[in-house]
């Protein structure tokens, strides 16, 4: 608990110093979010997937569905945490979500399987052409982001014969660059 309080204090102090240095309002600090994330190692997580959803939403005009499709795929992480009991222990939960390794071998589970993606996308597409496209692109984008970091990713889960490990180190400045590129792309398009 003390560590969490210290981290929160560091973040608050960082934001205050940044506001003073830049002499700007908190609203303009959004521009400096990639710097903040680089400093505090929060990358190929919810913010990155959400920014991908924002890009897809801006292109398709369906922000909510695009953000949901690009983020909610990680529900299988929660299934793993509940199944292994990690969710009951905050300290272990934090350690598990911040670790590159998947100690249970099922965090990127069935929802990260490319055949499940194709099958579900096809079914949704049959019922809603535009919704199917948005969900399919958001979901596939999420899978792509998971595949380019160097954590375990089994595209045919539960079959673990193929394990993709991308070139980008998990929790690194490289992931921060991916986030920054996505954020800049969102503002440009």
Summary tags:
0% strand; disordered N terminus; 9 helices; globular; mainly alpha; 189 residues; single chain
Question: Number of DSSP helices?
Answer: 9
Element string (H = helix, E = strand): HHHHHHHHH
Poorly predicted tracts of residues: 1-8, 33-43
Structural class: mainly alpha
First-last Cα distance: 42 Å
Molecular structure report:
By secondary structure, this protein is mainly alpha-helical. It has two domains: 1-40; 42-188, no CATH class. The chain contains nine helices and no strands. It has helices at residues 2-22, 33-40, 46-60, 63-71, 75-84, 90-98, 114-127, 129-148, 173-188. It is globular and about 40 Å long.
Sequence-ordered SSE layout with sheet pairings:
Layout: H1 2-22, H2 33-40, H3 46-60, H4 63-71, H5 75-84, H6 90-98, H7 114-127, H8 129-148, H9 173-188
What's the short story on this structure?
With 189 residues, this protein is mainly alpha-helical. It has helices at 2-22, 33-40, 46-60, 63-71, 75-84, 90-98, 114-127, 129-148, 173-188.
């Amino acid at each position: 608990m003390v560590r969490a309080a210290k981290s929160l204090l560091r973040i608050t102090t960082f934001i205050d110093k940044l506001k003073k240095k830049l002499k700007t309002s908190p609203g303009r600090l959004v521009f400096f979010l990639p710097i903040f994330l680089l400093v505090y190692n929060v990358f190929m997580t919810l913010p990155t997937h959400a920014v991908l959803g924002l890009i897809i939403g801006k292109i398709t005009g369906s922000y909510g569905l695009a953000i949901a499709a690009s983020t909610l795929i990680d529900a299988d992480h929660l299934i793993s945490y509940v199944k292994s009991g990690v969710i009951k222990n905050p300290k272990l939960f934090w350690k598990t979500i911040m670790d590159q390794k998947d100690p249970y071998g099922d965090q990127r589970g069935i929802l990260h399987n490319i055949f499940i993606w194709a099958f579900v996308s096809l079914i949704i597409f049959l019922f809603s052409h535009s919704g199917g496209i948005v969900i399919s692109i958001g979901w596939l984008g999420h899978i792509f982001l998971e595949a380019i970091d160097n954590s375990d990713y089994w595209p045919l889960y539960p079959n673990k014969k193929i394990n993709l490990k991308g070139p980008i180190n998990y929790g690194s400045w490289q992931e921060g660059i991916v986030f920054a590129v996505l954020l800049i792309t969102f503002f440009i398009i």
